[in-house]
Amino acid sequence: MVTYKQLGEKIKKLREGRSWSQELLAEKLNLSRPAISQIEIGQRKVGSLELKRITKLFNVSFDEMLGEEQNKILKGTSQKKKSAVLKLNQASKEKLKQILLYVLEKCGAKPNVGETVLYKLLYFCDFNFYELYEKPLTGLTYKRIKFGPAPCGFEEVVKEMIKEGQLKKITADYYGKPQKKYIPLVEADLEKVKIGVNGKEVIDNVINSRLSNMNASAIADYSHQDIPCETTPEDEIIDYELVFYRRPAYSVRNYPED
Length: 258
Fold this sequence. Notes:
By secondary structure, the protein is mostly helical.
């Protein structure tokens, strides 16, 4: 018999083979999106009635689903690499620029908010939004590095903003150590990028929390203990789906009990 993880991987490959989203599969199986995510990474048991619906939906047998051998139906299906970095399109870049300007307007002048703290604030904005609404906010991918999650493609966007006169990068002194800081030169326009009331609320909640008062070391330690970062190997891309396994202290969503 396969393990829950192996069964979840098979279900994920079948889903991706039809180019279905987790949300679509959830609708077809009358389950929640987080439940599908949990099944696919082996953190939730698949009941016998659920498995029966899955085999009927994908037109496969129980033996094919529960056998330890890789099945011919799974061969040739696409599998997304965890290490793949999504390239920001122009719309995503513009959204990131306005969100970055907004965050800097609100807390960038604090002496503790250097580049490292800024990385973590963006991480919590993105991952909190994804946990609540199951879709990206900025479009950034994040890699786990020694000092916690770091946004990929950030430097490219910052260079564009500096060239466009939207941002200034300086080096400050913070308790005897050099600190990279960013100074906004124009006002943010969140309406322009249509993040909506929900997006602004998530960002404001992060900015107004104790996170924006932490120094680089404290917020790095805190982010390391968030399940998405904690369970990701160093130098690997952090999977957004892992937000559905957060500890209560980090979770921002109320989950109904099954």
